[in-house]
């Protein structure tokens, strides 16, 4: 099927890429259907979570363990909502926020996105470990060059 | 909004299975204990709002900036 996307314009996608978020995302409660798209970035495995109905809404996401040691603290209730029976079916992402200066990029570690890849359902959970930040800098403050 | 005055160790019941206990009061801090079934989700309101706000900020992303980012991360990767 064809899908209008924010990063790539209209592209061909597979139904298999559709992830249903029954509860939407925080602040986007009415949006339930997203497509998981590869960002085609060679260096880092970024993905896009593209809203099906509104092409302007897309989130850049990444597996936080690519960049740091991230401990997923998920409640039993969330696991139940996600119908996760086997941990291998679970994909964990964190939403990335970009700023004018790309070095200021942050990741939302407090509200990770968890996806059951077998059932293709997703949920933005609130980490049970609540000392994680919604604006975790991905780069250490570097020395001034 | 229903407003109730409570003293330390007093509590409030919501339905039959949720109890909110005032565990302690110290200056401007109130310690609250909540007894509720597992499926009742309890969060501090500011966490909810923070994530909501961050999602909205993240959704403003300009996809064209992604290539700069890839280069930067490559440089910073261990």
Please characterize this protein's 3D structure.
The complex is a heterodimer of chains A (145) and B (78). Chain A has one helix spanning 76-81, and strands at residues 2-5, 9-12, 18-20, 33-38, 46-51, 58-62, 90-97, 106-107, 113-116, 121-124, 136-137. Chain A is mainly beta. In chain A, strand 7 and strand 8 (106-107) form a beta hairpin. Chain A is globular and about 40 Å long. Chain B has 78 residues and is α+β, with helices and mostly antiparallel strands. Chain B is 32% helix and 26% strand. Chain B has 2 helices and 3 strands; from the N terminus they run E-E-E-H-H. Chain B has helices spanning 45-58, 66-76, and strands at 11-14, 18-26, 29-35. In chain B, strands 1-2-3 form a 3-stranded antiparallel beta sheet, with no helix packed on it. The radius of gyration of chain B is 22 Å and the shape is elongated. Chain B starts with 10 loop residues before the first strand and ends with a helix. In chain B, 12% of the residues are buried. The mean pLDDT of chain B is 89. The chains are: A mainly beta (145), B alpha+beta (78). The interface between A and B is medium-sized, with 38 and 32 residues.
Name the features.
heterodimer; A: about 140 residues; nine-stranded antiparallel sheet; two-stranded antiparallel ribbon; B: about 80 residues; alpha+beta; three-stranded antiparallel sheet; about 25% strand; elongated
